Amino acid sequence: MAIAPDVALLAPVPKTHLESARVKKMTHVAFGTDCFDVFQTLDNLRGGTHGEGGEDVDVYIYASEGEAHDNIVTWKARYVGYVQSIDGRHPEPELRPPSTVTDTAWMLFWNVKDLTEIDGTGKFIGTLQGHNRPKPYGKSFPPRHPIIIKHPHW
């Protein structure tokens, strides 16, 4: 599948879920969100509908909720679509890291493949630029939910 060249996704994911996926050697993983509008817009940009079809999109992830983060992207993946929840849960629970067993209910789940840690020290979030922003975010920008960005081509 082709990768969308102009857009990417920047997303915070709780560190415990990333570590849980790593321990289980999961590379195809689903993360929960209530940000339906972000993924609907992303679908329009990648040529998909309702979380299916279209180009894959690179995802840059920073580990949130845990020890203080320093606005560094330390994981990457390939967004392949989303699914709506069933009673707040993913229809394929095996795609969820074991740490999510007590997670809250979500509206939808965004699915990634090729989840891997970035080698080295990671990449600074402040250098990234929102899809419709004229300049990079800067030093103190901590995303609180998934956002669409211009592809950084790291």
Question: Secondary structure elements and their pairing?
Answer:
Blueprint: E1 3-14, H1 15-23, E2 29-33, H2 36-46, E3 56-64, E4 72-73, E5 75-84, E6 108-117, E7 123-124, E8 147-150
Parallel strand pairs: 1-3
Antiparallel strand pairs: 1-8, 2-6, 3-5, 4-7, 5-6
Label this structure with key terms.
six-stranded mixed sheet, single chain, 154 residues
Structure, explained:
- The structure is a single chain.
- It contains 2 helices and 8 strands; from the N terminus they run βαβαββββββ.
- It has 154 residues and is mainly β.
- The protein is globular.
- The chain has a 6-stranded mixed sheet with strand order 2-6-5-3-1-8. The protein has a two-stranded antiparallel ribbon with strand order 4-7.
- It has a single domain, classed as ph1033 like fold (Roll), CATH 3.10.590.
